Amino acid sequence: MKIGIIGSGNIGGNLGKHWAKAGHEVLFTSRHPEQLNQLVQEAGGKAKAVSLDKAWEENADVYLLAVPFKAIDKLSELYAGEYGNKVIIDATNPYPERDGEMAQEVRDSNRNASEYTAMKFGTAKTAKAFNTIYADHLKDKAFRDTDKLAIPFAAQDEDSKKMTQELIEDIGFEAVYLGGLENTHIMDPDQKIYGVSTNRQDLEEMIKK
Ligand SMILES: NC(=O)c1ccc[n+]([C@@H]2O[C@H](COP(=O)([O-])OP(=O)(O)OC[C@H]3O[C@@H](n4cnc5c(N)ncnc54)[C@H](OP(=O)(O)O)[C@@H]3O)[C@@H](O)[C@H]2O)c1
Fold first, then answer.
1. Which atom of ligand 1 is nearest to the CA of 36?
2. In terms of CATH, what superfamily is 2-208?
């Protein structure tokens, strides 16, 4: 797959490296793509660094959103229209201390964070994944043959479900499907499975309770 990484920090940088290792074509983005040389080198394979504009123009199969939550407003304002019929995997989390008032509003609303992203990127097919795992675990615990960590995910339709599941499994995690975005409250900060690092069986037990 061709994957656009929107925000190449702890989460986007490491996921992009894993996906490149798994053989995918990875476009790392930054507001300063010239600063991503080292990341691109580490990723090897078919990875490159591009500007945000270019990433959407390159028509990737799927985009990972791994920016501070507050950036969603601006990014969707700029890019939701023309290139907005794509699959977006949302790994973001609203933190008022970092993201300000809009994050607090989302936390206080009766909408899950993923539903906020889906609303902002109106015509895209949004999935939620990789927001509950610690960056260190994402980095160090991928590609296991046994004792795999489970990654919970949710998706708006069959396409986004299939792609997200494949991208979780390709890098050695177990994909645990929660259903549609309306079920992602338990993935949000401080909720039941946020920050939980465990295997499929334990995660499924926790979700059932
Ligand atoms: N760290 C974790 O353990 C963890 C775990 C799960 C989920 N998350 C969530 O994942 C998201 C990313 O977290 P992270 O730890 O990877 O953050 P990070 O290391 O700070 O990386 C975020 C990247 O987003 C880019 N960015 C920042 N502001 C932007 C803006 N206004 N517009 C466009 N791009 C912008 C920055 O790239 P440039 O400056 O190069 O443009 C930066 O490299 C957050 O929502 C976070 O809550 C984090």
1. 40
2. NAD(P)-binding Rossmann-like Domain (3.40.50.720)
Q: Is the CB of 30 under 6 A from ligand 1?
A: yes
Report the side by side order of strands in the sheet with 2-6: 48-50, 25-29, 2-6, 62-65, 87-90, 125-129, 150-155, 174-177
CA of 51 from ligand 1 middle (Å) equals: 15
205 C-alpha vs ligand 1 centroid, how far in Å? 31
For 76-89, how does the pLDDT look when each residue is reduced to its tens digit (9 = 90+)? 999 888 777 899 99
| Predicted model pTM | 0.98
Q: Is the pLDDT of residue 27 over 80?
A: yes
C-alpha 103 – ligand 1 centre gap (Å): 14
71-85, 145-159, 170-184: least confidently modelled range: 71-85
Distance (Å, whole) CA 128 – CA 168:
12
